[in-house]
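OP here, attaching both records as promised.
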Amino acid sequence: MTTIKTFFKTTILIFTFSIVSACASSSDADSTTPETLTVDYAYYSPTSLVLKEFGWLEEAFEEEGTEIEYVLSHGSNRALEFLSGGSVDFGSTAGAAALMAKGNNAPIKNVYIYSQPEWTALVSNESSGIDDISNLEGKRVAATLGTDPYIFLVRALREGGLTDDDVEIVNLQHSDGANALASDQVDAWAGLDPHMARQELETEAGLFYRNESFNTYGFLNVREEFAEQYPQAVEKVIEAYEKARKWVIENPDETVEIMTSEAQIDENVAALQLERNNFSTPIPGGEHVDSLTEAGLVLQEAEVMDGDLDIEELVNELIDPTYAENVIDKE
């Protein structure tokens, strides 16, 4: 188990080192099109699964001869590590996780919103007797540090009059947290779909604390260096994501089939996960700025983020709607 202080110290070192390595591995600055474009896909982002399934990025870059590579992100923490290390050009994260990374000097920009999900809640087994935040005092709670479920947990504890010092946070990747809850190795879990939906349907675990406003948006982030060097490529990626977003809205049943196949989950689990996503606001805007600013201020109060950071300035540095505005018709 990784302690919270150790995790964040390690994260800062990773970001510092990876900024240097990403710069060292960049392509020829005179090139207008990348030879290789690497994007992540994630089970918590149905849009990314559809994009990968139909090869729409490959089609978009066919004339340029750009090779498309895909990397699986198991959580926002992994996507941010990949972005900062330069192993992906685009990474799918939760908004608050991206903000925390930006506060640690991660060289990223948010250029697109892939969904507005309710993808996290606090979960317990029926036999645990935990049905309220106050019941968590002194309990073991699984969460993946640096991700939206962890941030959700911090905010929920604060809402219930507790802090992270009042519980034992067990740092586990999302799928491992789900398994730990199922086997009673932890008392509760800050869940993430599709693992959360699976536990809900297959083990009758209960979502004992839900708060949609504490779920920050699904951010598609790009490495700043990549965006500066290849602005047209960024717009092409957003156009492909837009094609996938519209297809998801128009074809929910087929989307569930793709999610089921990719994530190897039950069709009912995939359907429940998809129901908890809203795909209506792809262009980063005021609502995303407001949501992230509020989350950042709460995280500062909880001493999860550096209290000296100017959250409003940090959010404005992170969110860049210009690429999406150039290619998406406002509906």
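Record two, same layout:
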Amino acid sequence: MDQSDAVPIGELWEERRFLLDVAHWMLGDPGAAESVVDEAYHRWYELSDAARRQVTVPRSWLAKTVGGICLDRLARPGRDAAGHGEGHGAHPSEAEAEAEAEAGRVVLNALTSLPTAERAAFDFRAFGMAPGTVAGIVGRTEPELAELAERARQWLRLRRTRSTTPQQHDAAACAVHRACVTGDGELLTSLLCPDATAFFDGGGKVRASTGPVHGCRPVADSLLTLVAPSPHTTLTTHSVNGRTGLVARYGGRVAAVISLDVSDDRVAQVWVMLNPDKLRSWNHRPT
């Protein structure tokens, strides 16, 4: 995964808002608009890495895709705006077949320190792959996959944070916050383990990085790009899963929640939640 895939929070959320406006204008239904935008992002992630790199203006590609989906749903008789109808999705496309093959490659190259099932489930959560795709590869049901993914994450957390005190964690998190706010790449890199890894969970609903970022410098670059200063973006420290983490807001709404796994005095793993669905609870909390 190339860290150049990282996109500033402001761009991610303005892009999704724009696409929702386009779909809502065409269909007149906010629920259907949400469905259309989700499908457009699904098609974006169905593209191969090489095909995505050839798209010079992703927002234009996504807008064109949203428009095409809306026109298709409006034109087909017996099909409601939300896209339900007979035969929908009956024949897998070439892009879907390619996504299946890519999923297989990812599973084969997953974290070697985990058992096979946990390894595949972990990749499903980290890469945002379709649960059904990974379930078919691993031979487990989707609920079993979710449980395995959580078990894998907890296992990795315990492995990394066993020797870290709460004071060390808080100090590291506050230092990371300071480096991100000031845009100090050298400081941020020094706060990360050499083999640090960052995971970005966009849930296929925003144009987030499609895989883990490895190495202290690439991780630092990705984080600084994501939280790049803008008039509407703020970054604060906040309790995340019982430990000090970071919360990024765009236009007053929570746009990203960042949790950190600290080993001794350095950050070993960074978990960035960007999925709008999973951030709803954060945006309904009292200020």
